[in-house]
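Narrative of accomplishments. A recurring question from our advisory board has been how the design workflow behaves on a single, concrete structure rather than in aggregate. To address it, we present the structure tokens for one chain from the evaluation set, followed by the sequence designed for it. No filtering or post-editing was applied between the two.
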């Protein structure tokens, strides 16, 4: 196996220009000498791991410097190699990437939760400087996941959990779809082995039947596209990967034989115009399912993914998802940000000119990473934000002027307001989606046109912290509340006095009454026939119970002045 890996690696390195070949093979030789007496948990020579990482980076079509850094990524951490030594032999760019990998790995003295958060924080900081660091890390993670069977079960489950929570979503956010799929499948295999084997056995039992069906589908598409003078297309078909099937079962709460959209087809063409023409061809062949069409060409995903998705009632009355994209879009869908350094010819072979993904899109990704590396509070909150926001699916909504706003999938109207501008958020009074009034805590949907209603007199309220789902919106709300805390009508600021009966004799030198506690305030505030009260300098203001939270006895309460309804508690 060791000799086969070396031979395979050398053959793949030969696809690069001669100068790059020499540099890559020199890095492999250097790494082998440094790790000479080290072994993996499997008992195999340690050099197998760096070579495997390098091979994955070649599969990602990365540049020579990245491949060299992948081959050397453990040398500073695990051997006597120095930064200066790597820089002198392979250049500063390679040394910087290796050092970035070392900083991510060198966090083993902390407890698990802090270590995990700090690892991600270091990783995003390194990414903001050179995103190739995380591509190396993903290649490193993939090979470690492929060889996880050599670790004890508890440690393997811990690594698989981190991979599923962090690294697979990160690969997805960076647009490297095949790597994301494999990380998910490998994680499921460790975390839920019985479920994994059950799905695998089912898919295997149906493979022959599915292949025959997909062959019929492909022939139908080729024939129909040929009739429409669309001859230069590629039709690809496959069953969904194991983790994808598992998630369909979980979300829909159904058994695998009740999942009818396990199969998928991709059609690759040359131009955007052809994509839409082929969509029409497909819909003439088979009726589309309502609500199952997505246009990611007009509205790309955050990771630059572009494609048309449609689900149709295909042959034999079976549901079938069909994706239509150009060959260039397919390349980006497979390699994501790695396409920025991808080495390929115009025909797609592994030699030629360096390919650059859309610079504006790449810059936007880097900008977001820098923002996240700078907006660090505590390790715990950072970890929560990473898992809950940056690694989540995204939606795209429009302003009334037609501008696209990208938000996490669970974002609300209030999140949208703060995304537009802090002052828009701070003065929000309401929102509209496609012309209809919606609550501020309404979860937004893809392609909605969102309009924010504002007033100069409006201001943030404490309950907005429950409405906002994004880290950035909550920070802005907290900042306003902290700055203007004295203007918020907190329960202890309500001074309640019972109405005294005129016939009751006055008590001389009576001690002032103790301010009522929260539950007494709630009772007294709404017992308006028996009390007088003051809020600030105002006396006997009208009181209403808020319908949004329905305060009850024992709650901490907040009051704010509304228009025409007095104080809302």
């Amino acid at each position: 196996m060791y000799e086969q890996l070396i031979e395979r690696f050398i053959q793949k390195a030969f696809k690069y220009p001669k100068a790059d070949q020499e540099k890559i093979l020199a890095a492999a030789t250097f790494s082998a000498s440094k790790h000479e007496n080290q072994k993996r948990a499997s008992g195999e020579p340690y050099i197998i791991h760096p070579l495997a990482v390098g091979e994955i980076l070649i599969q990602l079509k990365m540049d020579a410097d990245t491949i060299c850094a992948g081959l050397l990524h453990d040398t500073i951490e695990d051997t006597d190699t120095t930064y200066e030594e790597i820089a002198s032999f392979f250049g500063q760019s390679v040394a910087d990437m290796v050092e970035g990998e070392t900083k991510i790995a060198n966090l083993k003295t902390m407890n698990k939760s802090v270590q995990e958060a700090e690892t991600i924080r270091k990783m995003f900081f390194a990414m903001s400087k050179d995103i190739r660091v995380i591509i190396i890390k993903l290649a490193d993670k993939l090979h470690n996941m492929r060889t996880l069977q050599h670790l004890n079960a508890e440690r393997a489950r811990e690594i698989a959990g981190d991979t599923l929570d962090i690294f697979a979503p990160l690969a997805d956010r960076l647009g490297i779809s095949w790597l994301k799929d494999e990380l998910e499948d490998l994680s499921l295999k460790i975390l839920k082995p019985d479920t994994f084997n059950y799905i695998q056995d089912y898919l295997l039992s149906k493979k022959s039947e599915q292949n025959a069906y997909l062959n019929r589908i492909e022939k139908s598409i080729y024939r129909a596209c040929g009739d429409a003078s669309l001859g230069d297309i590629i039709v690809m078909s496959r069953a969904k990967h194991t983790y994808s099937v598992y998630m369909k079962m979980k979300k829909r709460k159904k058994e695998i034989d009740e999942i009818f959209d396990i199969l998928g087809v991709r059609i690759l063409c040359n131009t955007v115009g052809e994509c839409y023409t082929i969509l029409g061809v497909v819909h003439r062949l088979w009726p589309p399912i309502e609500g199952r069409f997505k246009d990611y060409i007009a509205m790309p995903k955050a990771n630059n993914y572009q494609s048309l998705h449609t689900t149709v009632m295909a042959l034999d009355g079976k549901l079938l998802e069909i994706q239509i994209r150009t060959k260039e879009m397919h390349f980006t869908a497979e390699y994501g940000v790695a396409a920025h350094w991808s080495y390929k010819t115009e025909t797609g072979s592994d030699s030629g000119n360096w390919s650059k993904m859309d610079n504006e899109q790449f810059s936007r990704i880097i900008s977001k990473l820098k923002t996240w590396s700078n907006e660090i509070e505590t390790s715990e909150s950072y970890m929560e934000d990473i898992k809950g926001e940056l690694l989540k699916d995204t939606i795209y909504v429009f302003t009334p002027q037609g501008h696209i706003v990208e938000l996490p999938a669970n974002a609300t109207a209030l999140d949208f307001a703060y995304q537009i501008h802090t002052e828009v958020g701070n003065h929000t009074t309401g929102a509209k989606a496609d012309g209809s009034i919606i609550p501020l805590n309404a979860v937004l949907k893809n392609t909605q046109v969102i309009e924010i209603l504002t007033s100069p007199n409006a201001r943030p309220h404490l309950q907005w912290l429950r409405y906002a789902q994004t880290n950035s919106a909550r920070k802005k709300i907290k900042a306003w509340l902290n700055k203007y805390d004295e203007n918020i009508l907190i329960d202890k600021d309500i001074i309640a006095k019972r109405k005294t009966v005129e016939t009751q004799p006055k008590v001389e030198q009576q001690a002032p009454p103790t301010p009522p506690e929260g539950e007494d305030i709630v009772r007294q505030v709404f017992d308006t026939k028996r009390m007088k009260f003051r809020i600030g300098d105002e006396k006997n203001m009208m009181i209403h119970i808020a319908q949004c939270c329905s305060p009850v006895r024992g709650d901490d309460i907040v009051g704010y002045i509304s228009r025409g309804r007095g104080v809302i508690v």
